[in-house]
Amino acid sequence: MAEQFGFKVLATDGNARRGEVSMPRGKIRTPAFMPVGTAGTVKAMYLDQVRALGSDIILGNTYHLMLRPGAERVARLGGLHEFARWPHPILTDSGGFQVMSLAKLRKLNEIGVTFRSHIDGAAYEMSPERSIEIQGLLDSDIQMQLDECVALPAKDQEIERAMELSLRWAERCKAAFGDQSGKAMFGIVQGGDKAHLRVRSAQALKAMELKGYAVGGLAVGEPQAVMLDMLEVTCPGLPAEKPRYLMGVGTPDDILKSVARGIDMFDCVMPTRAGRHGLAYTRRGKVNLRNARHADDHRPLDDESDCPAARDYSRAYLHHLVRSQEALGAMLLTWNNLAYYQSLMGQIRDAIEAGAFAERSALISEQWARGDLPPL
């Protein structure tokens, strides 16, 4: 019998949790960072590389894939795993955030959202049922409910309206998803920067007895302190035996502080987007390879890294590639960034297992604060 969806907490250290999600297509070690594969590809990377860096799962985007090449086409071609040659777990977001932020002439009501594609202006409808249908056609392993994400700051009544609508849509998504063997649908806690709305949303979603829970609508313009405050009021209201996913977050510092508050899963475009724009993440902090001071620097980004992109190429060469807008520059820096993120997640998991998460976090943060090595 194929393995069903499951989650177990293997160790705790304060509120930080070391766990494991089990699915037919593989296990996901948590805390986990999911590289974003928006259109069936992690930009500037081979998926074999992504796997080799330690990624157990990647994220696909419902909105982009429904527009191009189309969910029905992906289904005819064997599903997203076969299409992209990634046989491991995939999480798909619902498309709601992209509809709200990218689509043209969108109109929202109780039924769902009607909008025009940002690519060619073609008209589409997205309801909770259609979002789950598309994610099913893509054959993703973890599917997200359709929700309405409100940019902050926003008026209290607007945040509450969107939160309540998202709860009604969660019920419809749950019904549409049904009981799919080996897969999971996650609900999304909304409520903006209002603690009482976050608590209400978490309580209502918990009552739906879903297989996992996400925290959405953060890292959308609010200060980090507000995000962390919302996690502190939200996480205690979510079931301890279910995975918790903080959507669209974030920086290495965001991840460390969110793990400390009980988050298990993360995704963010930051490491790949930064790589395409000349910015490298390292254990000594960020390095901007566009800066002229790197032009004669023969040192690598990090001579102790296991990643060839960080260890084997000089900063002078990386600077040259970035300034020349060579594709290899984006490839190498994305490789470096994802390697650093996965290394960080491994350190976090090891520290929780050893009961040393707070001490290890402090050391990592101190190294960031000291900054990069001075130029030659």
List the helices and strands and how they pair.
Layout: E1 6-13, E2 16-23, E3 26-30, E4 32-37, H1 47-52, E5 58-61, H2 62-67, H3 71-76, H4 80-84, E6 90-93, H5 96-101, E7 104-108, E8 113-116, E9 123-126, H6 128-138, E10 142-144, H7 156-177, E11 184-189, H8 195-207, E12 212-215, H9 224-234, E13 244-246, H10 252-259, E14 265-268, H11 270-276, E15 279-282, E16 285-288, H12 308-311, H13 315-323, H14 327-353, H15 357-370
Parallel strand pairs: 4-5, 4-14, 5-6, 6-10, 10-11, 11-12, 12-13, 13-14
Antiparallel strand pairs: 1-2, 2-3, 7-8, 8-9, 15-16
Helix pairs in contact: 6-7, 7-8, 8-9, 11-14, 13-14, 14-15
Brief description of this entry?
The protein has helices at 47-52, 62-67, 71-76, 80-84, 96-101, 128-138, 156-177, 195-207, 224-234, 252-259, 270-276, 308-311, 315-323, 327-353, 357-370; strands at 6-13, 16-23, 26-30, 32-37, 58-61, 90-93, 104-108, 113-116, 123-126, 142-144, 184-189, 212-215, 244-246, 265-268, 279-282, 285-288. It is α/β, with parallel strands linked by helices. The protein has two domains: 21-268, TIM Barrel (Alpha-Beta Barrel); 278-370, no CATH class.
Verbal overview:
It is built from 15 helices and 16 strands. The protein is an alpha/beta fold. The protein has two domains: 248 residues, Queuine tRNA-ribosyltransferase-like (TIM Barrel, Alpha-Beta Barrel); 93 residues, no CATH class. The chain has an eight-stranded parallel beta barrel with strand order 4-5-6-10-11-12-13-14, surrounded by five helices. It has a three-stranded antiparallel sheet with strand order 1-2-3. A hairpin with a 2-residue loop joins strand 15 and strand 16.
